[in-house]
Amino acid sequence: MASGSKPAENKLCGGHSTGGLGPLHGAGVYGSIAFARANFNNSILTQHVFEEIEGGLLEVEKVWEADNFKIVQDYEDTPTANERRLGEIIGKDIAGKLHTGRSRNEQVVCDMRLWLRDELRKLEEHLISFLTESIGRGALACNPFNINREAISKELGFERLLWNSPAGVADLDSVSESPTWGSILMQHISSWSEDLIIYSSGEFGSVRLADAYSTGNSLMSQKRNPDSLERAPTTRTSWEPTLGHIKTVSNSIEIAEGVLTTLDTQPEKMKAALDPFMLATDLADYLVRKGVPFRETHRISGRCVALSEKTGIPMNELSYERLKSVDARFEEDIAETFNYEKSIEMRAFMGGTSRSSVLEQIAVLRASLQ
């Protein structure tokens, strides 16, 4: 691709996202191969297309490893760079099928986890378990009375001994690890707290907080303040003293449990908030099933959205003739795509949105708590 190309034509998200090219190219290549293989096993890709993609991606990795990958200004991130280079090797039509059914958000997270896992494995031999015991070592040279350290360790429930006395006494990792763990947990609590603040607002009304976890407003009598949720985002810190931090985390968990167990959902308001544009990806997937590369269907779906906005006609009410004018490969059964329940139930894989998948996720979580 020429570096002078227009960003709006070449950037995958039309220039809305940014990011540097990091060390994740290997994880990106092998993660993409695994995803393409899954699409092949699910008959989304033919064997020929999969083999072309796999071979092309391996060639991309060779270019990275040889430090010969030419960075172009329009590349937003490593996934973009890999896919563009793949298109140069095997052709854009085939390369455009690589991303079928895959969000770049999940791709980047997957790549990061793959890379981090491999890096941690390199360090694994040097890691010291937290569940070790330092009693009986004195301040430096161990205990002079030949006490049974193993018996003490066993009684206290530690997994094993730390053999080196100076290292064991100096090891205060647990003091820093606990606040770090607590900080990460608080980030998760903060994230869903912010979601519930939005969804409990008058604009959405999807959920209602119990009176015990909200307060009235001194001026606006109709307003309910989600104080219990507003507390969580303000406590995200790993700089507090350990004891105070643990107390903060404990209190936050207690509040979180109360909020969730008393939360009142408003399904009718949720249904009323449904928007046909939510099915834009389903529109793209419809053409994917007819053999059109996802990158092309993504653009076609975008044109359908633009047509809906221009005409003021909801996308699910666009006539077959109007959709046909956008792309001739639309057929009359396209109307079946605009079905929210069908869209949800089609995602019946592990972690998906179908009723059976969600119930399975709930069962797994409940089992993990036993």
Low-confidence stretches: 1-21, 126-144, 218-222, 235-240
Q: Characterize the overall form.
A: globular
Structural class label = mainly alpha
How many discrete structural domains? 5
Termini gap: 55 Å
In short:
With about 375 residues, the chain is mostly helical.
What does this protein structure show overall?
The protein is mainly α and about 375 residues long. It has five domains: about 5-120, Fumarase/aspartase (N-terminal domain) (Fumarase C, Chain B, domain 1, Orthogonal Bundle), CATH 1.10.275; about 130-170, no CATH class; about 175-265, Fumarase C, Chain A, domain 2 (Up-down Bundle), CATH 1.20.200.10; about 275-340, Ribonucleotide Reductase Protein R1, domain 1 (Orthogonal Bundle), CATH 1.10.40.30; about 340-370, no CATH class. It has helices spanning about 5-10, 25-40, 45-65, 80-90, 90-95, 105-125, 150-155, 165-170, 175-200, 225-230, 240-260, 265-270, 280-290, 295-310, 320-325, 340-345, 355-370; strands spanning about 130-135, 160, 205-210, 215, 225, 265. The protein is globular, with a radius of gyration of 27 Å.
